[in-house]
């Protein structure tokens, strides 16, 4: 099995997807978002700058950017839209002044996660996220997946090999087939499952897994929106659909959505406070989805097996 191996063999191995390049021959990239608690955002940005260099720049009291570091551009912010007064509003509430936003953020800080956000990374640089997580942990960041106030997410923003409807349908089929196992792997106990994104509606799953389901771009978007007009899905297609058809999609959305040319995989949990924790295991689970999607015979067999009510495991495909 091909890996995106870091230079140190003691580090976790990141599996390579079956298609490492985009349709125009460029290396694919993935952005990573890692939530944590405990460490203030300014202290987190300073710790990352001390480790990786770069210039720390303040956006507001609760959002700091590290530019031109050894691992690329990074952002550390409080994960609450209302405390970032200079950003475009995607809610109906009045805009707060910077001082009011700063006070609100300070009041919410004990209860709301911070978020490390990377710029899109080459796949062979994913291990650098683990290095950044280690720096944050040493500086005092905490979190083991679940807090009394909710889940701490690990999200991947994944650039696709191409944007054709066939590729997207294959990935969606493969993901829906493997999602039950992914949920068991990432949310192993009852408490964790309480915070997992809701599953796709059964009727939608059955429609997509049908051997005859190979829609064009418009039909794929229409079917997805009809049953999933929310970001609360473990594989969120809304940013990609909005990127491709902003005029047709935007009026139908009620959630905050930014258009991006990526798939937003948001099922995993972040465990920054756990020594030795790596994002590799969850990345490798995603790669299993891509490998199934890239094998037409295996994908067809897996879809038929899932439609018959039999579980499909990544190890079986």
Terminal residue distance: 14 Å
Give average pLDDT, whole number. 91
| Helix fraction by DSSP (H/I, runs of at least 4) | 25-40%
Characterize the largest beta sheet: strand count, sense, and whether it forms a barrel: 9 strands, antiparallel
| Strand-pairing-aware structural class | alpha+beta
Organism: Chelatococcus caeni
InterPro entries: Amidoligase_2
Protein name: Amidoligase enzyme
Region (Disordered): 1-23
Protein model, in words:
The mean pLDDT is 91. The protein contains 11 helices and 13 strands. Strands 3, 4, 5, 6, 7, 8, 11, 12 and 13 form a 9-stranded antiparallel sheet that branches. A two-stranded antiparallel sheet has the order 1-2. Strands 9-10 form a two-stranded antiparallel sheet. It has helices at 41-52, 98-108, 127-139, 165-186, 190-194, 202-209, 217-227, 238-244, 246-249, 280-293, 296-307; strands at residues 3-4, 14-15, 29-36, 55-60, 63-69, 72-78, 114-118, 121-122, 146-147, 150-151, 154-158, 235-236, 263-265. Helix 4 crosses helix 11. The protein is α+β, with helices and mostly antiparallel strands and 317 residues long. The radius of gyration is 20 Å and the shape is globular. The protein is 38% helix and 17% strand.
Which labels suit this protein?
single chain; 317 residues; alpha+beta; nine-stranded antiparallel beta sheet; two-stranded antiparallel sheet; 11 helices
Element layout with pairings:
Elements: E1 3-4, E2 14-15, E3 29-36, H1 41-52, E4 55-60, E5 63-69, E6 72-78, H2 98-108, E7 114-118, E8 121-122, H3 127-139, E9 146-147, E10 150-151, E11 154-158, H4 165-186, H5 190-194, H6 202-209, H7 217-227, E12 235-236, H8 238-244, H9 246-249, E13 263-265, H10 280-293, H11 296-307
Antiparallel strand pairs: 1-2, 3-7, 3-8, 3-11, 4-5, 5-6, 6-7, 9-10, 11-13, 12-13
């Amino acid at each position: 099995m091909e890996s995106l191996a870091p230079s140190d063999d003691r580090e976790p191995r990141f599996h390579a997807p079956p298609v490492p390049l985009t349709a125009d021959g460029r290396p694919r990239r993935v952005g990573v978002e890692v939530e944590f608690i405990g460490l203030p955002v300014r202290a987190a940005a300073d710790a990352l700058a001390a480790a990786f260099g770069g210039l720390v720049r303040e956006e507001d009291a609760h959002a700091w950017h590290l530019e031109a570091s050894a691992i690329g551009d990074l952002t550390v912010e409080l994960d609450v839209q209302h405390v970032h007064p200079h950003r475009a509003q995607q809610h109906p509430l009045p805009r707060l002044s910077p001082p009011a936003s700063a006070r609100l953020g300070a009041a919410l800080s004990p209860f709301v996660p911070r978020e490390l956000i990377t710029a899109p990374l080459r796949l062979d640089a994913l291990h650098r996220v683990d290095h950044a997580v280690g720096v944050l942990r040493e500086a005092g960041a905490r979190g083991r997946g679940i807090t009394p106030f909710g889940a701490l997410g690990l999200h991947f923003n994944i650039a696709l090999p191409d944007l054709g409807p066939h590729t997207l349908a294959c990935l969606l089929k493969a993901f829906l087939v493997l999602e039950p196992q992914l949920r068991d792997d990432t949310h192993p106990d009852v408490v964790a499952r309480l915070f997992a994104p809701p599953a796709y509606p059964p009727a939608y799953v059955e429609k997509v897994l049908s051997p005859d389901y190979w829609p064009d771009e418009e039909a794929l978007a229409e079917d997805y929106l009809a049953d999933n007009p929310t970001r609360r899905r473990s594989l969120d297609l809304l940013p990609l659909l909005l990127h491709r058809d902003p005029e047709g999609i935007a009026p139908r959305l009620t959630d905050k959505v930014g258009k991006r040319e990526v798939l937003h995989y948001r099922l995993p949990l972040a465990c920054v406070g756990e020594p030795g924790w790596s994002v590799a295991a969850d990345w490798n689970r995603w790669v299993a989805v891509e490998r199934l999607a890239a094998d037409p015979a295996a994908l067809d067999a897996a879809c038929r097996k899932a439609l018959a009510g039999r579980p499909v495991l990544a190890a079986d495909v």
